[in-house]
Automatic annotation (TrEMBL):
It comes from Corallincola platygyrae. Signal peptide: none annotated. Keywords: Transferase. Residues 384-418 are annotated as: Disordered. Its EC number is 5.4.99.5. Residues 106-286 form the Prephenate dehydratase domain. Residues 1-92 form the Chorismate mutase domain. Coiled coil: none annotated. Gene3D superfamilies: 3.30.70.260, Aldolase class I (3.20.20.70), Chorismate mutase (1.20.59.10), Periplasmic binding protein-like II (3.40.190.10). Residues 300-377 form the ACT domain. One of its GO terms (molecular function) is 3-deoxy-7-phosphoheptulonate synthase activity. This is chorismate mutase.
Length: 667
């Protein structure tokens, strides 16, 4: 028998492997730069998603043969491909703008080391130049002045955030600048509570924060009582203050990476109102840049229009007539002209292209003021997803040719009112023709159980993680997670495996908190006619799965959907989950006929939960295939590492049975 390697020997081998991995990554980067050069000659776009998909399919297969799971391989390659695309874009931009090339750039930004603008600046320029001279500033006006006066080559400015929206002071300084926007980047922003001395959250009585992060964490801050919020110029000045005070009662809000530069430790993370909190930054320079044709470009303009009915609509119609996708529209008061607005518009398109040029000509004729703030490369590299079926079967619109039923007392859900509703959750579309699987534990029992399920969900190409809280009234075992813990666990699993997740709401007062964290809400069969709950869910912006009551007719189900939609939330997914009949073989009988019937009555997506309508787990797969054949948009299934011990009251698949089901669906 060979002697096992010592820890030192194992580590030596790992270090050697890691150096080889780095060499290979560096060689891959060189090759993608060669690819970029070859794309200049043939004017081919940098991004080729068909090639990426084919590559991912091959790599996932190879990875599986080597014992690596698909999620791991996909995550790594999304990062590698993003780097490859951005590196190619940076090269093509340099070649298109040779006069701008310098080894060192001077960059102005808000705050000092550790601020969010600082982190964005380091990330953006790492691809572009060898070194930076940092010009920290205390206001947005000062930042712009640094560039206008020639003290800095570039400025990095935050422009919008997914929690707090547009950063109005930045829009206002853009109204008067002579500078141009030459780039953009998006940064994930994870706000933490950081302290300099060992302490706990409930000892904190003063929090130092810049206005923007404080606004993005407003819901968390509102829950605190007796805590003073001290405003600061930037997150870095908040860090500095807290590091100087070294007081266990004092904390700062900012990033963990930034705080580390000041010796601060996070005591609480995930403070932002939105769980996916991102900030978009723009890069400003004195002169505009050319954007290479191979790169997706954005053009930003500002305009004001006549104060008469329809003048804004007329201007926006110009974009439509020229086939330009508008990805942003903001308005700000024109300084000095009370009640007049300046509109800021981002369109996808290169300023040099004929459609952008002729749109601008048309706009010049109908606007009072029009200025291009810049044309720059779009840095959004959305990860390419490999579809479950390589050749997806169109389960889609089985309603073609069917009569359109008018549901007169439910006008919003009625098929007459519109084409099929499609609901997007990150990269998943429900109701778009793909059959979507929702899978996860019926009851969340522990972190280990949920993580194991989430890993399976991802590995087998199911699209949404589901998981429910054990009903509190039945919860005699205090070791089970409570509502707050359940949400936190789902959030962790969702982040780790990049899965949107759904969980159930039982009472109106739970809705706001669940909607803040979950991607999708669920109303259970027994609550289908809970008017207050329906209305509360109707007031949120999250899509909702509405389960059919076990004794409800299809009309009653549609009425319940109408109640939600009447409050404003139009993103309802109907779910057939079995109804009470005289047949007692299973708890309920799956009404397969409801699927095509609903499809003819409404434009809403329809999914199926067969969990309670089977007496044996082996009946689940046939009912899933039948649901797909009948036109359903998806299926909900329970999975569990040890189904025999599952606390869920429905029938639960083992991981192996789930794997077989997913292979069956992709065949
Ligand atoms: C390298 C290329 O450019 C891009 C990057 C890819 C990659 O890094 O594998 C794949 C396709 C393109 O989106 C290419 O076209 O092959």
């Amino acid at each position: 028998m060979t002697k096992p390697l010592s820890l030192d020997e194992i580590r030596k081998e790992i270090t050697e492997l890691d150096s080889s991995v780095l060499k290979l990554l560096s060689r891959r980067r060189e090759l993608s730069l060669d690819v970029a050069r070859s794309k200049i000659e043939v004017t081919k776009a940098v991004r080729d998603q068909a090639r990426e998909e084919a590559l991912l399919v091959t790599l996932i297969k190879k990875g599986r043969d080597l014992g690596l799971d698909a999620h791991y391989v996909t995550q790594i390659y999304h990062t590698i491909i993003e780097d490859s695309v951005l590196t190619q874009q940076a090269l093509l931009q340099q070649l298109a703008n040779p006069e701008n090339r310098q080894p060192v750039y001077r960059v102005a930004f808000l705050g000092d080391k550790g601020s969010y603008s600082y982190l964005a600046m380091r990330k953006y320029f790492s691809r572009i130049c060898e070194d930076l001279v940092e010009r920290g500033c205390s206001s947005f006006t000062q930042i712009i002045q640094e560039v206008e006066s020639g003290n800095a080559d570039y400025a990095m400015l935050p422009i919008e955030n997914t929690s707090s929206g547009g950063i109005t002071q930045v829009y206002d300084v853009l109204q008067h600048t002579t500078c141009s926007i030459v780039g953009e980047m998006t940064l994930p922003v994870e706000h933490c509570l950081l302290t300099a001395a060992p302490t706990t959250e409930n000892q904190i009585n003063t929090i130092y924060a810049h206005f923007q992060p404080a606004q993005q964490c407003s819901e968390y801050l509102d829950t605190l009582t007796g805590v003073k919020i001290e405003p600061c110029d930037s997150s870095s000045s908040a860090f500095l203050k807290v590091s100087e005070l070294k007081d266990p009662h004092v904390a700062a809000i900012g990033s963990a990476d930034g705080g580390e530069l000041y010796g601060l430790t996070p005591i609480k993370t995930g403070l932002a109102n939105q769980k996916e909190n991102f900030s978009r930054f723009i890069v400003i320079a004195r002169k505009p840049v050319e954007v290479a044709e191979q790169i997706p470009a954005k053009t930003t303009l500002i305009m004001s229009v006549d104060q008469k009915p329809g003048s804004l609509v007329e201007a926006l119609l110009v974009m439509r007539e020229h086939g330009l996708n508008m990805c942003k529209l903001e308005s700000r008061p024109i300084q000095g002209n009370p009640w007049e607005e300046m509109f800021y518009i981002d369109v996808e398109g290169n300023l040099r292209s004929s459609n952008v040029q002729s749109a601008l000509e048309a706009l010049t004729r109908i606007t009072r003021y029009l200025k291009v703030l810049g044309c720059y490369p779009s840095e959004e590299v959305s990860p390419t997803q490999v579809p479950l079926e390589k050749l997806p079967l169109p389960t889609g619109d089985n309603t073609e040719g069917s009569s359109k039923t008018k549901t007169s007392s439910a006008p919003l859900v009625s098929r007459e009112s519109q084409e099929n509703t499609q609901i997007r959750l990150r990269n998943v579309t429900i109701g778009g023709g793909q059959f979507v699987t929702f899978a996860g534990p019926g009851v969340i029992e522990s972190q280990a159980q949920l993580m194991a399920c989430a890993q399976q969900v991802k590995e087998h190409g199911a699209a949404v993680l589901r998981g429910a809280l054990y009903p509190p009234q039945l919860n005699l075992d205090n070791n089970l997670p409570n509502q707050g813990q359940t949400l936190q666990l789902l959030r962790e699993a969702g982040l780790r495996y990049e899965l949107p997740f759904v969980t159930e709401v039982h009472q109106p007062d739970q809705v706001a908190e669940v909607a803040r964290q979950a991607d999708l809400l669920q109303i259970g069969a027994r609550n289908m006619q809970n008017l207050e709950l329906l209305q509360e869910v109707g007031r949120t912006h999250r899509p909702v799965i509405l389960k059919r009551g076990l004794m409800a007719s299809l009309d009653e189900l549609l009425q319940a959907a109408e109640t939600i939609m009447a409050q404003g939330n139009r993103q309802v997914i109907l779910c057939e989950r079995g109804i009470r009949t005289f047949e007692g073989a299973a708890r309920q009988t799956l009404d397969l006929g409801a699927i095509p019937a609903l499809k003819s009555m409404t434009h809403l997506p329809v999914i199926v939960d067969p969990t309670h309508a089977i007496s044996d787990i082996n009946q689940l797969a046939p009912l899933t295939y039948a649901s797909r054949a009948a036109g359903a948009d998806g299926i909900i299934v329970d999975i569990h590492p040890q189904p025999d011990t599952a606390l869920s009251d429905g029938k639960t698949l083992s991981f192996e049975q789930f794997s077989n089901l997913m292979s069956g669906l992709s065949a």
